[in-house]
Structures are given as structure tokens and as C-alpha cells.
Amino acid sequence: MTTTTEPSPMVEPVETTAVPGRVPTSPTTGEGPRVDVAALHDTLLGRWPQWRSAARARSAEPDLWKDESLSMAEHRERVLTQCRLMAADPKRQSWLAFPARLGGGDAPGANLAGFEELVIADPSLQIKAGVQWGLFAAAILNLGTPEQHDRLLPAAMDLTVPGAFAMTETGHGSDVAAIGTTATYDPGTEEFVIHTPFRAAWKDYLGNAAAHATAATVFARLITGGVDYGVHCFYVPVRDAATGEFLPGIGGEDDGLKGGLRGVDNGRLWFDHVRVPRADLLARYGQVAADGTYTSSIDSPGRRFFTMLGSLVQGRVSLDGAAGVASRIGLAIATRYAAERRQFASATPDDEVVLLDYAVHRKRLFPRIAEAYALHFAHDRLLDLFDEVFSGRGDTPRQREDLETMAAALKATSTDFVLTTLQECREACGGAGFLTENRITSLRADMDVYATFEGDNTVLLQLVGKRLVGDYATALRTQVRTGQGQVRFVARRAAGVVLHRTPLRRAAQTLADAVKRPALGTCFGVDAQRELLAGRVAAKVEAVALALAPAQKADPVTGQEIFDRHQVALVDAARSHAELVRWDAFTAAVAATKDAGMRTVLGWLRDVYALTVIERDLGWFLANGRLSASRARAVESELDDLLRRLRPHVLDLVDAWGMGDNHLRAKIATGEERVRQDEARAYYASERASGNAPQKEKKRTR
Amino acid sequence: MTTTTEPSPMVEPVETTAVPGRVPTSPTTGEGPRVDVAALHDTLLGRWPQWRSAARARSAEPDLWKDESLSMAEHRERVLTQCRLMAADPKRQSWLAFPARLGGGDAPGANLAGFEELVIADPSLQIKAGVQWGLFAAAILNLGTPEQHDRLLPAAMDLTVPGAFAMTETGHGSDVAAIGTTATYDPGTEEFVIHTPFRAAWKDYLGNAAAHATAATVFARLITGGVDYGVHCFYVPVRDAATGEFLPGIGGEDDGLKGGLRGVDNGRLWFDHVRVPRADLLARYGQVAADGTYTSSIDSPGRRFFTMLGSLVQGRVSLDGAAGVASRIGLAIATRYAAERRQFASATPDDEVVLLDYAVHRKRLFPRIAEAYALHFAHDRLLDLFDEVFSGRGDTPRQREDLETMAAALKATSTDFVLTTLQECREACGGAGFLTENRITSLRADMDVYATFEGDNTVLLQLVGKRLVGDYATALRTQVRTGQGQVRFVARRAAGVVLHRTPLRRAAQTLADAVKRPALGTCFGVDAQRELLAGRVAAKVEAVALALAPAQKADPVTGQEIFDRHQVALVDAARSHAELVRWDAFTAAVAATKDAGMRTVLGWLRDVYALTVIERDLGWFLANGRLSASRARAVESELDDLLRRLRPHVLDLVDAWGMGDNHLRAKIATGEERVRQDEARAYYASERASGNAPQKEKKRTR
Question: Predicted confidence band at A477 (pLDDT cuts at 50, 70, 90)?
Fold first, then answer.
């Protein structure tokens, strides 16, 4: 435990010096650096190791596991029961984010560190718990007043009131500002009238809504005195807790079967002039007086809207973490299996090659292991920032904005990464990977929706791209203001164009390379990596910013046309930004590693990440003069060298994730393959020894 | 119907002039070329339109549909029942591939054209039917003698005997030559003794094995007279048809739940000294006389093995077709939804932008529509070749080899394409895409295993790569033999290196480009496309061939090391080859299109395919001097232009696939989204008209 931990008023979780799960230390053959698996494991537990460990240990207990044999209805009930077990847990880990005066821990970061690990047990459990504590109760916490906390939170926290988070509508998901549900204030009765005016305004895809929710935090446009004050949130009872029937004026539908997360009862809700007391507008950011007068501490409707939505960023933060956990499960299964599974004859007589010793197999898995590490380190930084803002220690508008941008960038790319990674892992395990007993397909199905809920990934990347472009414009203005002069800035930019965009530098570098080709292993050092990755983001953002600039002064149609021309580039810039954020976090983690051997291996892994990112976008680096052809061709061979160098360490790197048999729950990752092979080998050996082995045909007839 | 059709002795299927399903003609706004949807639909039906249409129409009938609500056990029974319906169908379409004297059609190509369409009904049904008729019965047909056909085929064809195809073992999938099951001849009783010597030799992942099979075609190493003659196939009864119990000496296990295809009862089988009569060795390629003497028309054990395995190529051919069908279903759903779904405000007041009018959305879907067309045209060529070989009209070793290579290349890449495409489609539909009622996640889960069964995609690509390298070596030798001289060949190659590999040409082209930048729309004409795509394959193959050449003379360990260094490049060359095959087929189809307008639109679509392929591998083209930086940068903008140009035609291109509501079975593709939007729009309009609409806050307070 090398990191600092927050003091907590709550029951201490289990000790973590005894690492939960299996963390075997692989015997290191030969010389060279080695990974101290236990030490790396402890480092990876991060800033709240006791809570992360506790959640990981709890997730390894069978009563929280996904039961693949259940029907949808049975699975839903099982997950509800599991949530009740968690609510009743004396450690009260699920309450960590809530106020200490209500039994919580005032510890938002520690809360997420543990919450993310629930994916190990069952993603349905994670999401059902996330709906209850991370969305429904969190909406009360983040959008409500202290009085509302005291009145509404306890029943939400202890699951007396299972709740839905009713924001998305059938007609509008990512564009929350355009929802159709209205909450019209009636000063005569001091009530809000919640109403669904048409089918597209039905609330949809809501966890807990199909079966279990007895209340919901409902987002609706607040109308009072004939004015629409935009989207606000209301606490609305929806079902009779005793009978399970909808309350008068409320109806809904079951979303039915889904591609995954079948333990979550997603559904639809509609409201027909449902009256709720004035006190149940969650009133932190906007209040309505008895006479209908609207007040808010935030004057700008736009800023108020984004502040309210921004307070719900923890969902995105936690999904980034959950995507990392699920990626590590898949990679651990596939890597362990590949370390044992043999196919096709080897150079050694009577033996076959282990999958990990095939170049293609290394290329399929190792870069993803490196990227999973990059995800991990960047996510730790995201958790830090989240905790700083939400603990109140560093809650500034700038930090909030940074947090939202980072959460959007990382969530959008990690939830994409987990899907392609689990698919690669499943295919890398062949037919065995397709069997549910080996976990991967089930996990992938559950993770699928992470790509579009809590913000569609494309929409999120666009948001990140716009923020980057905005920052660029601000930097431009700041330079002018501080007297550095736009002329100089533009000149620098022009120099950049000359150096990187036009063929001149490329031609020069090409000819220089023809004379002095850089030696392998030296041309992609850490400085070169950063220059390439940071330079790429700067160049892409600059290009989009310059291209979009005319849109601001254009008429709406032309403006939209200009935006449309550069939307793909905007999203692409945001993806590159996320990769730079991860590279930076990875590099900082390497630098912070004390043990020299471990630092070396993690450094190689970081190099693999950098080269993988560069290889993915090689065309851009070449077309924009950032890499010469010879350096570009060196990427592949250098990467190949690194993957070979990592081969003896890869099981250690996977073991450091601390995933034991009860976390992986995949038969092929238990060593059964090795047992089968030993038996087969023993059989053939005894056949040969007995002299009964049949001759090979060609030996006789040829 | 412009293509020729085979005469068939069988019952004629339904007429196809009335196109099954909905094929509406989109109104074309404005001028320019247009697509004749009905004509294109007919063209796409290909060479056996009546059989493809019949299967498509049959798949649109509810009794063959996948029922998502069923448990695994119920789904298995439903699919068995569906197979029985198909077997009893008076059109006997399932029997098309079998001998006419047994009630079949002697029409292997027509058979597959229909079989592929079964994916529309339920991929489990396709695979269960494929196991019965395409593997179990096909093994009897392709590996058996006419006497065995007469004796064993009828019960397999009419499903009196449901059968398993017992080739894969737990320990060996793609490496069939290494299976452990033995069939030892006992001349005393004139029987073979089928035996599973250890756990890794259990037959595994076999469709029909867990529940329904009463017989199996079992692959085992044939041993007679103390000599192992390699893998042969045996007809082995496995269950008592009356009781469903395993026969003596036979056991097994259920593979249980899988990531998809839950209607197929995959399972494991083992044999404990099970005796089968000598007559039940499927004896087309190898025979054992009563006294145990082995004979074969093929002397070389290696060639015999590959001939036997090659006779089973139709599985791969049909999976390529099935992957195309499933891709089209997903793309049709996502495109129709995107044509109606609106999100975020547009330049037009009070309206929102249709998803298809977002550049990112076009870029997500249109290139995949183009690639789906490329898949289609290449698959038609594959079917032609398959029919030629398996009808006997063109059954030469060279054609067989070409067929196997083409099937491997196309299957390995199309079954990868379908998975990424269905995922893109599901995400493009947001949360709605995740609901089972919208089909895509269910279809994707079922298609998942297509990537690893009937040959693991990586192994298949390696096989293709090796063939390409072998062809290169043959060409080299042929040149020497024909007196053209290796010197000249090497000189040409050296010139190629100078032109394409070294920086010289790049530098020259770079400087030339700086002076005369090619105008957009002209720099990627059809000749340039072919030069780029064919040149890429040639260069990649040549590079690998030269790199691998020393391995042939090296010791085994060094040889394996050399191979390992270039395995990734070998597989990469094979992928590029598949893309060239598709581009060629697409281009031939464009050229064959009579209607000028349609030819224009299909030409654009082919250009999109070409530029998509080039963009995917842009780094290679640049690093190897095939594209200058400015041409490379033009790829993106030219592609963007093409996607805009295709925007008015994209629904036509999708409609030409002939997928009606009963084929798609996705609620979001039925027009319900448009109905919801019309209702919402009418509501807001009436609010405004009544004067009751609330004011916007900012209008009042700012």
C-alpha cells in the first residue's frame, strides 16, 4: 500500500494484505528485469485499496454472481435480492458517496473505486446498483437540498424505495434539453403537474422501471407563470409499494429482452397529469416559491442546465472504470488459456506450439494488455479529479469542466475498447470462447450497452472535440490579450504548417533518412512518443478549429454545412486526445515506479501502447509529415520486438490484476487445458514405450 | 431475371416476379442518376433467383422465425421441428445438393444460394440445417461411395436420422490432422474399433450431439496392420432413436449455453472401443479390404487428407453468404431508422436533423453498405466457382485449390465484417439498438461463432497467405523454366523496390505533387484503384515470400523463428487479397450493369469501397511510396464527397436487398419512429397555434 487513503467514518472493510483471488508469481526464467506481481498488484489497487479490495472480494462470493441459467424474470429478481444484500451489508460500501450524517462516507472517489468492481460479479448487478445509488439516489443528492436529502435519501439508500432515473425519452436520449415531459406549476394547489404530452416523450430504457421502482427522479421542463425554465428534476412516486401497481395517472411498459443486462428491468414510464407537491422539485439549482416565482443561483438557463447535468458525471466516470475491469477479465482469461493451449506442430518433435508463441496471437493480445494498463492509469487520474470536485476540496468551474471532458473522452473510448477486446479474446479462445461456461460472450453482451448509455459515445466525443476547439480559441484570444500578439501565434502556426503539412519537411526527412536510417529501438523513445502523440492532438485540433471558424459568422444553414464537413475530424481529434491522456497517465505511472525491473517492464508496455496508437493512425502521421516512410515502417518491427520482449512477463502483468478463479469464472482459465494436454502426452509416450504405436504411413510407403 | 438458371428436376419454387418482402421505390428528388430498385433487386438475386427467392420467402414465414422468448431447451426443440418442416417441404429445397436419383437436385450452387437465406429466419435454424444436410449428410455424399449414398443418404436427407459431424475435438480444432480419435481395423470381425484415448480427444462443439443426433460422421485416424493412414471418416450410430439414450460404449456431454445459436444442441461425444462394420468407413478416397489391406486412389497421405477436407469446403462458402445476408439485415435496420430518427436542433427552426444527415453517421453506415455490396458480388463469383467444381463441370485440382483459397479468404473476412457491422448498426441505433425487439443484438450474438467455426479466421487467412506465397514461388520458377530468366524477374522486382519501397519515388512524387496537386474527383479513378489494390497485394506477397525463403533451407527451430517474424505480414497479405477479390467482383458487376444511371450509382458505391479499403491501410500505401501525402489526404475528402453524393440513393441501395418487415423484424425499421415524430410535431404546432405554448426563459429574462 504505497498510496494515501482517506480516513473513513465507516466500518472498515476486509484487510487487503492478503490479496483476494489468486496472484501467483510466475517463475522468471533467465535474466533481465522482472515484475514483482504482488507489488504491482498493490499499486494497481490505487488510492482506495481497501475499498477496491473489499468490493473485489465481495464480488468473488457466489451469492453475487451472475447465474447464466436463469430466465429474464428470475435474473431480475436475483439481482434485486443481491442489491438488498448490498444495502444491508454492515460495511455499507454502497453508501460511501452519501452524507456521513445519513450513514454514508462522504467519499465519492472511494465509492466509485469499489462500485466499478461489481462488474466481476454481474454487470446487471453493477447497473442495477448504479441505477439505485448512482442515478436515482445520486440525483436526490446532487440536485436536491439538504432538507430533501434528509427526507428522501434514507429510503433510497437502504432500498426501501427502489427508484428509476427517468431522464431519457423514446424520442430523445443524448439531447436531454429537447425532452417533451412537462412539469407545470399550479399555484392554486402548490403542486407540479407532471405530464407526458405524446408517445415520443415516454420515459424509456429506465432501469428499475419495468418492475421494481416505486419512485423515480423524473426530468421534465419546468413551466411556471407561462414560462419554460428548462429541464429540472422531480421526485415522483410511481408504484404502490404493497401491490406493485402503478399509481393513478402513471403507466408504462417493459422494454423486454435486451442484448445483455437481462437482470436489469428496463422499462418505459408515462405520466398523465400526475400531481407532486412543490417540495418535490429537487431544488438545489432552481426553486419555485409558493406563488410560482422561479429563482435560481445560476442566471443563464444554458449554464444551469449543464451544471445540473454535469452533477451526474459520476455515471460516466464509473463506466470508464467498469470497462477497464471487464477488459481485464477477458484478457486474463484469453492470456491464461493461450499460455497453455497448443496448436499445430512445433520445431520440437512430438510437441505443439503454445498459442502465446505465435506472433499473430501476441499481436492480438499484448497490445490490448498494454492498452488495458493505459486505461487503468488514466482512470485513476479521472477518479482523483472526480473525488477532488465531488468531495468539495477542488470544486471549481474549471475543474468541473475538465472532469466532464476527461470523463467523456475516457468513457467513450474505453467502452469501445472493452467491446473489441472481449471480442478479440473470445475469438482468440476459438470455439471454447463461445461457450458461456468460459464467460467472455456473456460479459461482452452485458458490456454492449455501455457504448451508448450515460451518453452515446459519438455524442460524447463530439462534446470533447468542441471543448478542445474552444480551448484552442481561448488560447488564441489569451495570447492576443497578454500582448504576445496574434501575429506571433499565427506565425508559429504557419511554421507548423510548413514543418508538418507541406511536402517540404517530408522530402527533406525522406532524403535524410535515406542517408542515415535510425537504428531500431532508438527512434521511438519517450520524448519522440510524446512529441508524436501531443503534436497529433494539437495539429488535429488546430485544423478543425481553423476549418470551423467561418461557421460562427455564417448563416445557420451554411454554418451547419461547415460543421458537417468537419464533424468526422472533430470526433477523430477527440479520440486522439483520449489516447494522449492515457499515454500521459501511463508515463507518469512508469516514472513513479520505484523498482527498476518493474519500471523497465512497464516502460516496455507503455512503449507498446504508444506504438500501437501510432500504428493505428499511421496514415495520419505519414500524410502530415510527422513520420518518414522509414520510421513508419520501423513501427511494426519495433512493436514486434517489444512483444517478444514482453512474452516472459505477460502472465505476470495479467496476474497483477488480481483476478482469481472466482473472479474469472472461466473453465478454460483454470488450468484444465494443461491437465488435458499432459494426459494426452502421457498417452502417446506410453504408446511409444510399449511399442504399440502405429507407424506413420509415409514412413512405410515412401 | 437476367441470369441463366439451371434446369431442375425438382418441384418449382414460388414465382419471383412478385418480389417477396417490401421493395419500395424511393422517390428521387432532383436530377441525376437514379437506382431502379426492382431491377437491382433482381440482379442481386443472382444466378439461381428462384431458389434464393423461395428461401427468402420461406424465411419470412413466422413458423421458421427465431422466438426470443424461449429457453434453450425449448429453442432447440423448435429448431428441430423447423428442420423437420423443411425436410417434409414438397419443394425439397434442402435436398438440392443431393443426387437426383435419391430425390435431390444435383444442384450444389443453387442449394447454397437458398441455404444462406435461412439466416433471415433464425441463424440457429441455418446452422442446425447446415449440420444435418451440409455436414453430416454432405460427409456421406462427398466422402462416401455410391453404394453408401444409396444406403445412408435417404435417412439423413429426410431427417429420419439426425446426425452430428464429429470432426473437431476438445484438443484440436483447426489442426484436424492431429486429432486423437482412432479407428483400428480388426480383420477378425471385419470391424473398425472407434476409440477416444484421452479427454482432449473427445469430440466437441458438435451441433446435434447434445440431444438429437442418432448417428454421426466421425473423423478418426484409420489404423490397419499397425500403420496409421491418417484421418478418415466413419458412419457411427450414436443414440437409440427410440429412447434417445447413447448406444453402448458411447457417451457425451452438453456444451450448454453459448454466446448465441442457442437453438443448436452443441455437445461432446466420446467412444470407448465402439465397433462399426467395415462397410461404414466412408470409402471414396480410402478403402480397407477384408484382410485389412489399405488402398487409396491418392498415394500421398498429405494430398489425400487435404482432398478429403477440401470436399467439405461448402460450409465455408455458405458462411460467407450467410455473413452477407446478416450484414444486410443489420444495415437495412440501421439505415431505415437513421433516415427517420432526428436528434439535436437543425438550421431549420423547430426541426431536428435526421441521423443520416450527420457526416459521422454517413461515415459509419455508407462504407459498410458499399462493403456489403462488395461482399455480395464476390460471393456470387464464389458460388459460381463452387458450382462448377461440385457439379463436376469444372472439377480440376487447380479449380479446387482456387475454390478453397477463395472460400477461405472470403469467409475469414466476411464473418469478421458482419460482426463489426452489426455492432456499428446496433450502436448507430442507440439504446433502441440494444433491445431484442430490434433484432440486431440477437443476430450479432448468433453470428459471433461464424468467425471461428468451419475454420478459425486467423488459420484460414494464414492458409490463404501461404497459398499466395506459394503461387509467387511458382511464378518465379515458371519464369525461369520458360526462359524469361530469373535475372529479368529479379530485375523487375528490384525496379519495384526502387519505385515503391525506397524514398526516391516518394521524394519525386512529393515534389511533383507540390507543384501540381491533382484535382479532387480525378485522382482515384478505376485504373488507379486497381493499381493501388493489386499492387498492394503483389508487394505484400512478394515481401513475405522473399522474407520466408530462407526458412526452407533452415533448421526447424530457425525456420519456425523466421516464420514467426513474418506471420503477421502473411495474414495481412491475405486480408489485402480478399479485398482485391471483392473489388474485382464489384467492378465487374458495375461494368455489367446496363442501365446508365444505375451504373453510375453503383460505380460511386464501388469507389466508396475502394477508398474505404485504401483509407484503412493508408499507412501502408504511404510508407511504401504508393501514395503521396497529398493524395493520401485527398482520400478522406473524396470519400466524404462520395458519401454526400450517395445520400439520396442510400435507401434505394438498401431496399434493393429485398428485405421486408418480415425479414427485418425490427420495430424501429417499420416507420414507427416517423409516426412518433409526426405526433410530437403536431402537438407543438397545435400548442403554438392555441397560444398556450410557454415562453422560453431566455427570451423573457435576457
Answer: confident
Q: What share of chain B is helix, strand, coil (3-state, %, to 5)?
A: 60, 10, 30
Reply yes or no on whether the pLDDT at A520 is more than 60. Answer: no
Q: State whether B695 and A444 contact (CB < 8 Å).
A: no
Mutate to test the interface with B, among A254, A258, A411 (most CBs of B within 10 A): A258
Nearest CA in chain A to B623: A629
- Binning pLDDT at 50, 70 and 90, where does residue B476 land? confident
Beta-carbon separation of A301 and B698 below 8 A: yes
Nearest C-alpha in A relative to B513: A503
* Helical segments of B391-456, H only: 397-428, 430-434, 440-447
Q: Which amino acid is at A637?
A: S
Which of A452, A696, A700 should one mutate to test binding to chain B, selecting the residue with the greatest count of B CBs within 10 A?
A452
Cell numbers that stand for B48 in this block: 439461381
| Chain segment B71-90, per-residue pLDDT in tens | 999 999 999 999 999 999 99
SS (H, E, C) B277-323: EHHHECCCCCEECCCCCEECCCCCHHHHHHHHHHCCCHHHHHHHHHH
Q: How many CB atoms lie within 10 A of CB A248?
A: 11
Residue-level length of chain A: 702
Instruction: Count contacts between A and B (CB, < 8 Å).
Output: 314
Give the nearest partner residue to A359 out of B435, B456, B564, using CB atoms. Answer: B564
Cβ pair B226:A694 closer than 8 A: yes
Select from A457, A625, A680 the Cβ nearest to the Cβ of B200. A680
At residue A164's C-alpha, the angle toward residues A160 and A168, to 5°, is 170
- Signed CA dihedral, A145, A147, A151, A154: sign only: positive
User: Per-residue pLDDT tens for A233-290?
Assistant: 999 999 999 999 999 999 999 999 999 999 999 999 999 999 999 999 999 999 999 9
Whether this prediction's pTM lies above 0.95 is answered by: no
Instruction: Tell me whether residues A452 and B427 touch, CB distance under 8 A.
Output: yes
| Chain B residues lying within 8 Å of A221, measured CB to CB | 694
Instruction: Tell the residue number behind the cell numbers 489399405, with chain if given.
Output: B294
Residue with cell 482456387: B402
> Which of B175, B230, B451 shows the shortest C-beta gap to A427?
B451
Banded model confidence at residue B518, pLDDT cuts 50, 70, 90: very low
Question: What are the strands of the beta sheet with B203-206, ordered from one edge?
Answer: B203-206, B267-271, B250-254
Residue A670 cell numbers, joined: 483454470
Does the pLDDT value for residue A159 go beyond 50?
yes
Nearest to A427 among B360, B431, B452 (CB): B452
* Tens digits of residue pLDDT in A611-651: 999 999 999 999 999 999 999 999 999 999 999 999 999 99
> Which residue among A256, A448, A623 sits closest to B632, beta carbon to beta carbon?
A623
- pLDDT at res. A501: 37
Burial (CB < 10 A; 0-12, 13-18, 19+), residue B37, is buried
